Amino acid sequence: MSSRVRVRLVFAAMSVVVVSALSGCAGIGSFLPHTLSASAKPSAGDCWTSTVKTAGQAAAWTAGGAVPCVGKHELLTYAVVNVKSSKSTWRTGDGNLDDEIATAANRSCDAKFWKLFPETPDNGRLLRYFFVAPTDQWKKGARWARCDVGIFKTGSLAEDPTFAALPSTVAALQKQLESTPDLFANCVTTTDPSGDTGPYDDPDAVIADCTQDYQWRYESDFTFPGEADAPYPGDDAFDAVDQAKCGDAADEDGSDWIVYVPTEDTWAAGDRAGSCWFLGAVKPET
User: Fold this and answer.
1) 10 Å Cβ neighbour count for 114?
2) What is the predicted pLDDT for the residue at 281?
């Protein structure tokens, strides 16, 4: 099966860390201030409770202090990095996070992440977040950013995921990734057992465990060729790219597949991204 759905969807910013020798929660000396003030400078190994919405929308963390890592928590700080900026505030005129500061923080956190977790599957369930210093601290010269990781929970809706509980230490998470990277890959099961419904086409589709039974598995992202003013491709042009970027590998694997491509509107706005998914379950005979 080769089908194409012209939508541009990103698996929960699924947009989504490390200091070598992290072994657990921060020491008691650095942990205690966080229980009293969420704005205290964090430490690698800190643990936090959070929803997906809170983690995704916060520029500076205001959702409470760190929690004991032996208890349930949804975010784990893998690094605290420095952000180079001479700006007196990270806020723009409309109150949002400045793009340059966001880019610098994201790059620094990503560099730490890939050193600690090189086995992480692309576009998987393991998500990365960062939070800059509170505005009052930033004005006084604080230039740190907290780098956190969270993981989407299997069984939660793909369109509205929730967080799963995390291991108590960065080291434990590293071991899981080293031993079973597929546990963190991106798989989805729809409510249609026939395999004719793609992972982004069912509002009731759920995140699945890639080490167990699942229906669809994310394979890759790719970029369609085209300058900023290039016209929207016709079916033949799309089919050629789809086959080269997804179909050939799927045919070799013996899998049915589906590709998601830009709409005319998103193409006009500069979107050139496509995503490829393989059907993991055996399609019933008809």
Assistant:
1) 14
2) 62
Q: What residue ranges in the chain does DSSP mark as E strands?
A: 2-5, 47-48, 75-82, 126-132, 144-151, 187-189, 206-208, 216-223, 257-260, 273-279
Residue 250 is classified by DSSP as H
User: Across the strands, what pairs with 130?
Assistant: 147
pLDDT in tens, 143-195: 999 999 999 999 999 999 999 999 999 999 999 999 999 999 999 999 999 99
How are strands ordered across the β-sheet holding 126-132? Answer: 47-48, 75-82, 144-151, 126-132
Judge contact between 65 and 38, C-beta under 8 A.
yes
Report which residue type is found at 120.
Answer: T
Cα–Cα distance for residue pair 126/40, rounded to 1 Å: 26
**Do 18 and 283 contact (CB within 8 A), yes or no?**
no
